TrEMBL record:
<dbReference type="GO" id="GO:0005829">
    <property type="term" value="C:cytosol"/>
</dbReference>
<dbReference type="GO" id="GO:0016787">
    <property type="term" value="F:hydrolase activity"/>
</dbReference>
<keyword id="KW-0347">Helicase</keyword>
<dbReference type="GO" id="GO:0005524">
    <property type="term" value="F:ATP binding"/>
</dbReference>
<protein>
    <submittedName>
        <fullName>NERD nuclease</fullName>
    </submittedName>
</protein>
<dbReference type="GO" id="GO:0000725">
    <property type="term" value="P:recombinational repair"/>
</dbReference>
<feature type="binding site">
    <location>
        <begin position="262"/>
        <end position="269"/>
    </location>
    <ligand>
        <name>ATP</name>
    </ligand>
</feature>
<dbReference type="GO" id="GO:0043138">
    <property type="term" value="F:3'-5' DNA helicase activity"/>
</dbReference>
<keyword id="KW-0547">Nucleotide-binding</keyword>
<dbReference type="GO" id="GO:0003677">
    <property type="term" value="F:DNA binding"/>
</dbReference>
<dbReference type="InterPro" id="IPR027417">
    <property type="entry name" value="P-loop_NTPase"/>
</dbReference>
<dbReference type="InterPro" id="IPR014016">
    <property type="entry name" value="UvrD-like_ATP-bd"/>
</dbReference>
<keyword id="KW-0378">Hydrolase</keyword>
<dbReference type="Pfam" id="PF00580">
    <property type="entry name" value="UvrD-helicase"/>
</dbReference>
<feature type="domain" description="UvrD-like helicase ATP-binding">
    <location>
        <begin position="241"/>
        <end position="545"/>
    </location>
</feature>
<feature type="compositionally biased region" description="Basic and acidic residues">
    <location>
        <begin position="10"/>
        <end position="23"/>
    </location>
</feature>
<dbReference type="Pfam" id="PF08378">
    <property type="entry name" value="NERD"/>
</dbReference>
Amino acid sequence: MAAGGSASRRAQEARRQERRLREQWQAARQEARRWEAASEGEQQVAAQLLVLREQGWRLLVDRHWPGTRAANVDMLLIGPGGVFVIDVKNWRAAPEICDGRLIAGGESRDADARKLTAMTRTAESAVASLGLSPVAVRPVMVFAGRRLDVALGRIRLLGEHNIGPALVRERGRLSAASVRAIADHLERVFPEYEDPGATPSPQRPDHPQVPVADGLFDLDGLVEATLDEARQAPIEQWMTFLHPDQVALVRRNWAGPARISGPAGTGKTVVGLHRAAHLAQRTNGRILYVTFANNLPRVQATFLKSMAPATADRIDFRSLHSWAQEYLRARGVSVRLDKNKAETAFFRAWTRAGRGSCLEEIDPVPHYWQDEINCVIKGRGITSFDEYAAVPRRRRRSSLRRPHRQAVWKLYEEYESYRAGRGVHDFNDVLALALAEAAKHSGPAPYTAVIVDEVQDLTLVGVRLLHALVGNAANGLLLIGDGQQAVYPGGFRLSEAGIDVRGDRGQVLRVNYRNSKEILDTALGVVAEDTFDDIDGLRTPGRRDVDLTYYDGQVQYVVKPTEAEHDRALLDALRALSPEQQADTAVLCPSKRAIERCHRLLTKEGIPVCSLEHYDGHPVEAVKLGSYRRAKGLEFKRVYLPRHDEGLHDSGRLLGTGLSDDGQVPMDRLPETARERAELARSQLFVAMTRARDVLWLGSVVPDDGARPSDSPPGAR
Ligand SMILES: Nc1ncnc2c1ncn2[C@@H]1O[C@H](COP(=O)(O)OP(=O)(O)OP(=O)(O)O)[C@@H](O)[C@H]1O
């Protein structure tokens, strides 16, 4: 279609809108004039808002504020954009914001702002029972006869002529049925106001006493806003409605650090995001929302911006290490993070102190010992051998006697000496330096609240660092995670970080909103035998009880005798998807090598690919491709796991031990470190599988003479 054609259609539509709005405006003016109780300013504002009624909004005027003896709420407006608590001001002087304070005519008007915020909390509580998140309830101060649009913390200050267009422009979050149900509910909770001291008015409702000004209606603004709104997609359901238990967590007052746990897909991140927005609405400070992974903060920031745009600029979404580096730089502490040089330092140390030592008898793979240094020694901030000799090595399977620990310590000291000699830091050093800096810091905390998502992936030092930023302040630290989804070696307990989340400060979510029974059962089957220790010290069986809400969804097993046939089946399945379907599809692989291979396959076939490293949550018409680890915290309608069971066999394979790599070696006969590796590989596969909403595609290569049964791949048994 030529551009001219669509421009003229748009102009026609705008003219139609304008006619309709003119008629609605006339009717609205008549109606507003009948409200004798309302002040002149209120009548004028009401007339502007009544026009919105034709667009699906409900306006409740002059309501009693429940819980008070005789206070009223000027207006409640409920529509596609949410619930708005409106206070109308007819001030002689123009409102101004100075240093975060509301001023008019040189006088502070903060009391008015506080009162409106308190009214909004009453409305929030009223709709929480319907599952409406506080992000959907917003306070608005409207100034009769003025034009303005500014924010004062959570409150939006709008001129009489700006309010209509501003509200129509809000992204659609409530359906017509929800608007009706919420408005009916609020009508009951906020009954009509009857002024106890008022003398009966002599005026008759149909005798207009207060003239409502003509010609001030912002027709152009409203037409433009209506057209804009029609172009916007509505936001996701979960960005407005939660389970009442989730809303309760979002709004809860915790006296100190708190924790939310629960199996995969139970809405932990959803609660975390709503909580971040809620805290940003209630305080003036900044909120830090941290995860271990680099890609997740971008996606979460995108979601939050759609969900609660007014709070977005006060919430920092960061990965822990990038945040820590920036924190150090801002304090003038020099950091020379160099992953490659640190890696070289380790291998030099291994050559000198590891190779040929008693460590090789336990596990000949240097990476196992590199993990020991990273996750156990440095990850826990251990600086003396005595400490290391006594430490419980959580989630590490090998039992190390004193001579082994001495050998590890020697390797650690060699590594540190090489690393320091090269003048570089590793990732653990960055966190340790930041922790030292945070411990020194006095004065106001840089953040009002810190929310940590996927906390099980952090090290003990990482958690201590984030705790140091807010201490035990009320509503300060919230830790969200699930020990079953730990994808890195090692571990810690919250008590070791000095964090106490006993009683109501440890909450568990149990309802899965993401996976169908078939998909979840398949995923749980992978980790069924793996009892895990969570960060609160609780031992939990691998197969957990989960309540399900989502029933559509299927697992597709594709078993082919050769790699070529397997790859062809994958490509055929992906090519059969429409571009919109591809946009909600992920291909996940256990290793970098497997990702590179898949990337070549897909691009050669002309299938558009977006690396998970670059995905930021905005829809892209391309298949997402990345590692199991990078898929953490994300979800897709369709998830493809090519050769999904190979990682399991590789991890069980024992280098130099003579054990077979066909996966048939009984688990209890595998050496401890191989069992640990296999367990970690299963956790990663579990995470990848639980990313699938509608379709989980599990590919396997089993040669015709293969030892493995062809109807049910091992990963799925
Ligand atoms: N109250 C709700 N109503 C409907 N859907 C919900 C609700 N809560 C969460 N969801 C849906 O469930 C999905 C999973 O939520 P979320 O990602 O927060 O779970 P999670 O527990 O953090 O998962 P994981 O630990 O596997 O990363 C969300 O994408 C959202 O679509």
